[in-house]
Amino acid sequence: xxxxxxxxxxxxxxxxxxxxxxxxxxxxxxxxxxxxxxxxxxxxxxxxxxxxxxxxxxxxxxxxxxxxxxxxxxxxxxxxxxxxxxxxxxxxxxxxxxxxxxxxxxxxxxxxxxxxxxxxxxxxxxxxxxxxxxxxxxxxxxxxxxxxxxxxxxxxxxxxxxxxxxxxxxxxxxxxxxxxxxxxxxxxxxxxxxxxxxxxxxxxxxxxxxxxxxxxxxxxxxxxxxxxxxxxxxxxxxxxxxxxxxxxxxxxxxxxxxxxxxxxxxxxxxxxxxxxxxxxxxxxxxxxxxxxxxxxxxxxxxxxxxxxxxxxxxxxxxxxxxxxxxxxxxxxxxxxxxxxxxxxxxxxxxxxxxxx
Length: 356
Prior knowledge:
single chain; about 20% strand; about 350 residues; disordered N terminus; globular; alpha/beta
């Protein structure tokens, strides 16, 4: 089980890491696997040569529009005079640490890490700028023992998940709803470390996302997903966040970045098979293995995101609700005032891009 001290340690370790050198990413520049290096890239919107921003962007191995933008070199094609560096991160917690240490301008992180960043003790000056996806079955609880078919069957077992992630949040919410928080042992493992622990018998189950999820289901089975937890009232999202300083200083860059994210989301929804081809080089797996994963997420347009349902309205309440749960679990010191979560959302770009 998770002790109160163990839960608190998640936030404490994050805070302590803010003053250290960043170690959770790999610098990739335009990306050695980017298709844009082999072919001429055409900007799908009106190019803006006036943007000279230096942007340090973090991404993760999550099948979303950001991978299309990176793989196709769209930012570089549409803002040819900008200086853009891409860095790969293994978790949202690493992205939060990078924001806190000043080594990253914009990056992908889940709604749980973003909420932690906007809450005490971190209180990082950052803003949510885009919803990469609404998480459904793409994040799930996979179990190795074929005889275990329910959450209750995991009493006394070891469950792995990346602490501080959206999967961790969903797992805690599910355990809380089943009054099982004290009946299991949780282990903090990053996705790339799970397969070895799974094969070695150190864990009995894991709540994680693809491509790790698919590897575990080769000899395991899913018993619950984040879609189930969302129906319980605890939805999760993959987001893009940026430091408040960067957003304030670079509105033209943010407008173009948002246009391209909107373009990429549109490609996923209109042609998931083609979108999977763009993602395959970044994820290192075949397109036919990616396409089914896309059905486990919901990809929103800029117009959707600017609506009252999402960034343009109720999303601040979702962050506040997440914070209240994280406080109960001991992952944050306090829930910030509602104004902090409202100001932690940047809507100028999605409203501009999403307007008719």
